[in-house]
Amino acid sequence: MHADLALKMMSDLFWTGLLLCLPLLGLTMLVGIAISVVQVVTQVQEMSLTFVPKLFTAGAVLIVAGPWMLRKLTQFTVQLWSAIPAMF
């Protein structure tokens, strides 16, 4: 295996990982920031107030974006496995 091929494979791996994690992490971060602003304004410092909405948001994102994430992961895996004969 050549170094440029290994670098391309690692680049594809990291890019796919970023694309798969971005919707889940991005939306839970936005919900966390919104809840933090509400906590600062109302001065209610309850720990479950931040945890429960982020948990529901993560579940909703996985339900909505789950099929897309699975398709992307399947495409990456098929591409990786189909490239094995070309490596040797």
UniProtKB/TrEMBL annotation:
Main location: membrane
Domain of life: Bacteria
Compartment(s): Cell membrane
Cross-referenced Pfam families: Bac_export_3
Family the entry assigns: Belongs to the FliQ/MopD/SpaQ family.
Gene: fliQ
GO cellular component, one term: plasma membrane
Transmembrane segments: 12-39, 51-70
Keyword set includes Cell inner membrane: no
Coiled coil: none
Protein name: Flagellar type III secretion system protein FliQ
UniProt entry keywords in alphabetical sequence: Cell membrane, Cell projection, Cilium, Flagellum, Membrane, Transmembrane, Transmembrane helix
Example GO BP: protein secretion
Topology in membrane: Multi-pass membrane protein
